[in-house]
Amino acid sequence: MNSKTPLNPQLIAELKTTVFWSDQFPRPNDLPVANELPSQVDVAIVGSGYTGLNCARVLAKAGMRVAVLEKNTIGWGASSRNGGMATPGLKQDISKIKKTYGMDYAREFWKSSVDAINLLEQIIVEESIDCHWSRCGHMSLAYKQSHFNDLVGYIEWLDKEFGHKKKLISKSQLKTEIGTDAYFGGSTDELSGGLQPAKYVFGLAKAVAVHGVILCENSQVTSIQKESNEFEVMTNQGTIMAKNVVIATNGYTNMLIPKLKPKVFPVGSYIIVSEPLPQDLQDRLSPKRRMFYDSKNFLNYFRLTPDGRMLWGGRNDLSTDLDLNESASILTKQVCTIFPELNDVKFTHSWTGKLGVTFDLMPHIGQINGIHYALGYGGHGLSIATYLGTELGLLMTGQKDRSPYEEISHQTMFFYKKDPWFLPFAAKYFRFLDWIS
């Protein structure tokens, strides 16, 4: 589709190209941000999303003086832009993880993805974060009959090897879960949940501030230099000396640490949200208020928001800079194909965010020249970034002595140094796979 493709008629001029979640729940005016940078801290964390804030939470509770440095405003990146879905598993398929690392590691990685959802819920409860968290479960939908056939064996294998149970839903049973017959069946998993991501990240920021974390907005880090036993962290607001530094920027990672940039690349994800739907329509489309995603490589993910809007996400490209009106046109055609009842519904918001993806499709914890990092969630950041941020904090404070995420090799590719020029070619490959599968 090119830029001249006409918009779906329901996308009127009032379509907002801003993030629905933070429009609905703006950054709180009483968020306790610092008026000036501290001169000295134990740990400086670059990035104020789920990774950075959860790492800061552990460090501060262990008695460390911590500053979180954010280029924009707290939670500005993917942590306030995502679909608000927490599901077990990682970006890389667990069967491929087994082939690469062996069954022991595969079981550890799978368990960590389950633990991540439980940890997310634990933090929400412990910190009294009002973010509409609900253990509503999710449904994985088979886009083709062959995908459903594969799903049958996968569910049996997952139960046998990992003790994780999913329920198979045939095409004839679909209407008990979703108001469309466009899919060939699927599976449900009761472990999963959903929330309002902006409310979670802002609530988390307030909580870590109570624990003593110094929140610094509009503080772009321009360089990090090792000085004796400390790091000199230079920002547009001044300089901080820190004993340790954490990079928690995931899909927004830049050339601040040149050796880190080639380890992760950004992929665009695009979302639209409708006006509030009538109650009876909500009940037909999603009777159990599940989180949903399909089996395509260029998958779609969708849900009803807590206030009853249809949220539909996906991509037809891997680019991070598609025009938001163009992406809205693509996405509305997709959602109305699956749910014809939405043909006359107005969509109010269209926005984008960046996923952080690694070449092995695995999250990683690591160090470069003594600087810590955690990244590479590939669309599972709500739970996995919460988990890895916490895990990194536990490692740094000595409360844990190992993590599988720091033990596996973090691959790079010789052809990627700075700009992900290869994404258009990868997009064509994935479209081809969706066509032939």
The first-to-last residue Cα distance is 22 Å
Oligomer: single chain
CATH homolog superfamily: FAD/NAD(P)-binding domain
**How many strands appear in the DSSP assignment?**
18
Under CATH at level 1, the class stands as Alpha Beta
Helix content: 25-40%
Number of helices: 11
Strand content: 15-25%
Q: What sort of overall outline do the alpha carbons produce when their principal axes are compared?
A: globular
Q: What is the domain tally?
A: 1
Which parts are unreliable, with pLDDT below 50 for 5 consecutive residues or more?
A: 1-6
Fill in the CATH topology.
Answer: FAD/NAD(P)-binding domain
Description of the structure:
- Helix 2 (50-61) packs parallel to helix 9 (381-396).
- The protein is an alpha/beta fold and 437 residues long.
- The longest helix is centred in the N-terminal third of the chain and has 24 residues, at 103-126.
- It has a single domain (20-137, 190-436), classed as 3-Layer(bba) Sandwich (FAD/NAD(P)-binding domain).
- Helices cover 31% and strands 22% of the residues.
- The chain starts with 19 loop residues before the first helix and ends with a helix.
- Strand 10 and strand 11 form a beta hairpin.
- Strands 1, 2, 8, 9, 10, 11, 17 and 18 form an 8-stranded mixed β-sheet that branches. The chain has an 8-stranded mixed β-sheet with strand order 5-6-4-13-14-15-12-16, sandwiched between helices.
